[in-house]
Amino acid sequence: MAPVRDPNTQSNYDAWRTRHTMADFAVDFAAKCLRGSVVIELESQTDRASTEIILDSSFVDVADITLNAAPSKWEVKDRTGPSGSPVHIAVPDGAGKGEVVKLGIQLATTDKCTALQWLSPAQTSNKKAPFMFSQCQAIHARSIFPCQDTPDVKSTYDFVIRSPHVVVASGVPLPEATEAAGDDKIYKFRQNVPIPSYLFALASGDIASAPIGRCSSVCTGPNELKASQWELEDDMDKFLDAAEKIVFPYRWGEYNVLVLPPSFPYGGMENPIFTFATPTIISGDRQNIDVIAHELAHSWSGNLVTNGSWEHFWLNEGWTVYLERRILASIHNNNAYFDFSAIIGWKHLEMSVEEFGADHEYTKLCINHKGIDPDDAFSSVPYEKGFHFIYSLDRLVGRENFDKFIPHYFAKWANKSLDSYEFKQTFLDFFSTPEYASLQGKLAEIDWEGRFYTPGLPPKPEFDTSLVDVCFQLAGKWKQKDFSPSSSDTSSWTGNQVLVFLNLVQNFEEPLTVEQSQSMGKVYGLADSKNVELKAAYYQIAMRAKDTSAYPGIVELLGEVGRMKFVRTLFRSLTKVDRDLAVKTFEKNRDFYHPICRALVEKDLGLAEAESS
Ligand code: BES
Ligand code: ZN
């Protein structure tokens, strides 16, 4: 038995592997919990060598576990750090290699569940119904049900969900059966493509849907439906066409987008069949839908071909950012869009490296995850350093050759998980055939170990700056103290061009004066922008300028969006200029934030209590 390669699971998945999972839950909005059962089918990997199955769990209330429908001996062990409380189930006779055993687990989630957020009707936009949603990546699925919570194991799923409100899950919806007790309806979904536990997803609430493409709908609250449809309908099929041309046809059937309430902690989450997305992408100008190109790209990188552990997370995100940029360049029919997005990404990478320190473990492409919570290691590093590594390979072998490698890689590893070394081997094997003889010298020079384990910034390539030159020019003018701005400076720009400009100003050696900051906000319409990306970037400049007149707007924004990209960066800056205001604002909005966001901001602000284990 090879030891397990994922340090963030306590499950013994070397001995048993989940093949199918049936989740049968009632959504109890009054008690704010899911209750019901999961039936997990596990295949023995050894010939009776293991007489125990160990699953991950975290704050789940387990009532009973049966083994092949008979009573079993089981125990939930004590918590050990971020990994949670392993559940041990005795399998007295073991099982022959390839034999399948069935665990039936009766459970309810608890108020300490880190994956679920429960919103009261008052916290939703039409105030009519409560809302709940899950976020399982990276290791939160174990707080919904005991499972082998590792991206190294994939299972097909059946969902049978009872709820008084519409349900969405990470499977293909089956015709709905209306019979159920009380107000509940039963919603069924099936996921026939094996998926890792972190892609398990559920949401329920007052959800309506409208078509946005040939196999796509957008789902969201009835009040937001029209705007959400408008935002996405023009580009959805274009994204899909572009992605299919770069990799190979989409394998999941439908691709839908669920636009969540504003406390959704990420920009997007690539839950299969239903990408979950922040409402901040619905900005009324189609300027923030790159997120959808990104989540769609995960249908190949991440969802079909998956990182074998969170130490190799760059394989998910670096590849996805690369595909996202290829998709954007393709739909604009202009390669400068690829570089433009990469320039913005480079800036994010620099900020992450600066935040951690250039020698920090978390600035490596492959990060040691032993004993750490993957949420703590999360940053732009796997995205952008991962992107730069993939892009460097693309440039090394040439676009035409790399374009042949892409479908090969995704077909070879489809429905499997891999680590960085398997990636290396796949790449080298592909280019080892005689037709690539002329590349051998270059291939031998790739410093794989250096790429995987050197902290800090990777080598910076030359970018095509044609879309950012105007941003540099305007930023240059702002360096001159007597510059008088006009709204026409930026009125014809894309949102991302304004963002690059703001990032440049943020990096000035000297902060802006209070007057400059105020005039920038007013003249360019930043403080009132519906584009949260721009508003948040502007507020960073205002805080650096110590422009206290901007603080009420910052506080207001922190009560309106729960996307961590904005919330964490705004709090980090706010606490530097006005600690009391930061703490007060956090406490006021504590219930509004998703548990994952709440926990991370608590740590960022130094408010977290040490975990008792
Ligand atoms: N899979 C990620 C979100 C994620 C990562 C959730 C790690 C939990 C743990 C998703 O695909 C993502 O990268 N979202 C980005 C979108 C952006 C890069 C376009 C986000 O949320 O900002
Ligand atoms: Zn992603």
Automatic annotation (TrEMBL):
Free-text comment on the cofactor: Binds 1 zinc ion per subunit.
UniProt key word Protease: yes
Organism: Staphylotrichum tortipilum
Required co-factors: Zn(2+)
Cell compartment(s), UniProt: Cytoplasm; Nucleus
Taxonomic lineage of the native organism: Eukaryota, Fungi, Dikarya, Ascomycota, Pezizomycotina
Domain of life: Eukaryota
Protein name per its UniProtKB record: Peptidase family M1-domain-containing protein
One GO cellular component term: nucleus
GO MF: aminopeptidase activity; epoxide hydrolase activity; metallopeptidase activity; zinc ion binding
Binding-site residues for Zn(2+), renumbered to this chain: 294, 298, 317
